[in-house]
Write a structure and sequence with these properties.
Belongs to the cytochrome P450 family. Helix content is about 45%, strand content about 10%. By secondary structure, the chain is of the alpha+beta class. Strand 7 and strand 8 form a beta hairpin. Helix 12 packs across helix 13. The chain is globular. The N and C termini lie far apart (about 45 Å).
């Protein structure tokens, strides 16, 4: 996971972080990230010098045109993190190592190899019947709701929003939903992506890999109508290890971002009177709420990252070969250049929440995520129509993360339903 390979090089001499670099940490990211992004843009322009954990320098790309430019020019800003000029300064226990340490997955491939690996995923996902997925998600949602419907209260983040996409994703990949090891895989996925105090994410990630390796072996011997089998049968002839790595990427991308999308949408529906009135009265739809969340509270706030292939310019900044660029997806979505009146509308889908360019979420992954999220939200509202927050809106807290935008909990109340 931490191999720096042949691209590794020492940090350029005489190139310390700019004196005005901003630490990507603090309560501002938890409470009011949009205000912080506006302040960074005013002070630094569309590309800001920042410090990652341990004061490691990087660039935060805030502007919509600049993020679009970076993601469309892989020849200048590539995905293979072994190019990073800061590797000599990275300790072995660096917190962000799981996100930037090179792995042999589709996430870090480039050029023809990326097109080969991404093409396999695209074809495998394209074989998913969206109506069947919606039916499966509703069945999963109904089962989860039945587990707490009689109590009149629930914590939707842990009991519902995380579980629906996780279970749907592993079932989509060919694991039986009712098997005990499927539930263990779902639990380990949550721990590896969103560890709570006392969890061991490294051990959980290892168990995920082991279980998916067994799944790949099973599907080699007995293929079925699932994503894993289609990846194995693709003419590109991926190795078992490549399929395992790319399955982890597919399931992880389906799980945590979609879980936060579900929960952030439920929060909007329960706290914004436009939707509180509209969902029951027909003014505004769940689909509009889902889209607005992608603009204003996108689950993936910032993405690390891209690495400069050579010295270049971006947003008036001199970017040196090997520099790390963090894609500020949330900041770009609210860039005043695309919303000059200060009002961010949700009437179109030109947001960057699924990134952009060759390394964006492969088609049809965003459509499948939409099926999962929309089905989860609509099923909950259908089953529990008088759902309300159990706390005041300002008592809801966000996870202290600059990378993902998600609530720590979403407690609700409703009339108990006798099963």
């Amino acid at each position: 996971m931490t191999d720096t390979g042949s691209f590794a090089r020492p940090a350029p001499p005489g190139c310390p972080a700019p004196a005005d670099a901003v630490r990507l940490a603090g309560l501002e990211y938890q409470r009011t990230p949009a205000q912080l992004y506006r302040a960074l843009r005013r002070e630094h322009g569309p590309v800001a010098p920042v410090l990652l954990d341990g004061d490691v320098p990087a660039w935060l790309v805030l502007g919509y045109p600049e993020v679009t430019y970076v993601t469309r020019h892989d020849e200048l800003f590539a995905r293979d993190s072994r190019r990073w000029n800061q590797w000599p300064n990275i300790p072995p226990d660096w917190p962000l190592l799981p996100y930037v340490g090179y792995q042999p997955s589709v996430l870090f491939t480039e050029g023809d190899e990326h097109r080969r690996r991404a093409g396999v995923i695209t074809l495998a996902l394209d074989g998913v019947d969206q109506f069947e997925l919606g039916r499966d998600c509703r069945r999963i949602a109904d089962r989860l709701i039945s587990g707490f419907a009689g109590s009149g209260q629930a914590e939707l983040m842990g009991q519902y929003a995380h579980a629906v996409p996780a279970r749907a994703a592993v079932q989509m990949c060919g694991m039986p939903l009712d098997a005990a090891d499927t539930q263990r895989l779902v639990d380990d996925l949550r721990i590896s992506l969103d560890a709570a105090e006392g969890d061991d994410p490294v051990a959980a990630y290892g168990r995920v890999g082991e279980r998916l390796a067994r799944l790949v072996k099973e599907k080699r011997e007995l293929p079925g109508p699932d994503v894993t089998s289609r990846m194995l049968l693709h003419p590109a002839e991926l190795t078992d290890e490549e399929v395992v790595q790319d399955l982890i990427s597919v399931i992880a991308a389906a799980q945590q971002p979609t879980a936060n999308w579900i929960c952030n949408t439920l929060r909007l529906l329960l706290t914004d009177e436009r939707f509180a009135l509209g969902v029951s009265g027909g003014r505004l739809s769940v689909a509009e709420a889902l889209n607005e969340v992608l603009w204003l509270a996108t689950p993936t706030q910032n993405f690390i990252g891209r690495w400069a292939v050579r010295d270049t310019q971006l947003g008036g900044r001199r970017i040196r070969a090997g520099d790390c660029l963090v894609l500020g997806l949330a900041a770009a979505n609210t860039d005043p250049q695309i919303w000059p009146e200060g009002h961010v509308g949700a009437e179109n889908c030109a947001h960057l929440s699924f990134s952009n360019g060759e390394h964006r979420c492969p088609y049809p992954a965003p459509l499948l995520a939409d099926v999962m999220a929309r089905t989860a939200v609509e099923t909950l509202l259908d089953r529990l129509p008088d759902l309300v927050l159990a706390v005041e809106p300002d008592e809801l807290t966000w996870r202290p993360s600059i990378w993902m935008r998600g609530l720590t909990a979403l407690p609700v109340e409703f009339t108990p339903v006798v099963q």
